[in-house]
Amino acid sequence: MNTTTQELQKQKLQAQIDEWKADLAALKAKAAGEAAEAQIAMHKQFEALEVHLEEAQAKIAELADAGEEAWDTVKAGIESAWISLKTSVTDAVAKFKS
């Protein structure tokens, strides 16, 4: 895979993380209007999502630092973590938007 393709892939992943961060910010704003008990439950889940997002951000940095020969190995690890993160964010958004 060439450097241009790697850079585009990295940009695509970063754009998705940015979108998820915006979703999380909107959910936090909505949580401010909820009852205290609900806010506590939401806050715990938000913290977990923030950890996942930070991990994803670190993986993108790892991907950026990977040489072309290490690209496939690093990419496989990122894809696995990405699926987990996507599921977590999607579930949280669905749960708290309703």
Would you summarize the structure shown here?
This protein has helices at 3-31, 36-65, 71-97.
Explained architecture:
The chain is mostly helical. It has one domain. 88% of the residues lie in helices and 0% in strands. It is built from three helices and no strands. Helix 1 packs antiparallel against helix 2, helix 1 packs parallel to helix 3 (71-97) and helix 2 packs antiparallel against helix 3. The chain is elongated. The N and C termini lie far apart (42 Å). The mean pLDDT is 80.
Q: What's the end-to-end separation, in Å?
A: 42 Å
> Over all CA atoms, what is the radius of gyration?
16 Å
Q: If you average the pLDDT, what whole number results?
A: 80
What's the total count of β strands?
0
Order of helices and strands: HHH
Shape: elongated
Alpha-beta content class: mainly alpha
**Main sheet characteristics:** none
Instruction: Please report the number of helical segments.
Output: 3
The helicity comes to: over 70%
Give me the oligomer status: single chain
| Estimated share of beta-strand residues | under 5%
**How many distinct domains?**
1
Low-confidence stretches: none
